[in-house]
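Hi W., the N-carbamoyl-L-aspartate complex you wanted:
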Amino acid sequence: LDIIDLANKIKANPSEYANACQGKILATLFYEPSTRTRMSFSTAMMRLGGNVIGFDNPMNSSVSKGETLKDTLTVIGGYADIIAIRHPVEGSAEAAAMYSPAPIINAGDGGHLHPTQTLADIVTLYNEKGRLDNLCIGLCGDLKYGRTVHSLIKTMSRFKGNRFVLISTPELTVPQYIKDVMDNAGCEYTEITSLKEAMSELDVLYMTRIQQERFASEEEYLAQKDTYVLDRIKMQSAKKDMIVMHPLPRVDEITIDVDDDARAMYFKQAK
Ligand code: NCD
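Structure:
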């Protein structure tokens, strides 16, 4: 809640924070593709008066020569004041934090977690809904590999009265450790396969991309692709004040005619 408060203060008065990170260096080490996440970190650091180093393709760094994560982090940790890392291996950010003298931000570790996306998500959620509790939250798509889903559920489970409607195929349901998080928090949740049937009860709909890069084979991905598509017709059965969120990138799970709907928050969320 303190971070949401600070984010809103910065939004309301950016010039007051223009030098907040003066003289500081952020390293963005992206071992996986990214548009929004990496550039939002860079933009944030620049707007706060700091500087940015890093790579967006490890093949242009000494990683291509065989340098280990430990060595890369030991070296960069000596240059930067803080490091944002995205890596395909689950647990890599935690490993990085063991090696790096500079603090580590997890910008996505494989199909595990994406905590800073959740920070952006909850700022939007709080500002749009006016609360973070007593919400009926639908999450739809790739709930198995979708790391943004896992982090969002972990966070929203901490607030009272939230209920989750988990919409996916049986192959792409949330992992057991996420169910444990909801159970331990006493959160109610249902697992269903129909987006259409869920629409009318939701306060929030969090759509996600099927995570093609995490599938063992092309066939398994193709079997899941295009199962869920949010379009104008489905939006008609949603509450007037339901909001649609998506971490981006969108592929084809939301048709572009939804973009003009006042309830579509995904670009606002990224901004
Ligand atoms: C997400 C990610 O990388 O997990 N993107 C993002 O950071 N905004 C979602 C995705 O890639 O589908």
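The first helix runs from residue 2 to 12.

W.
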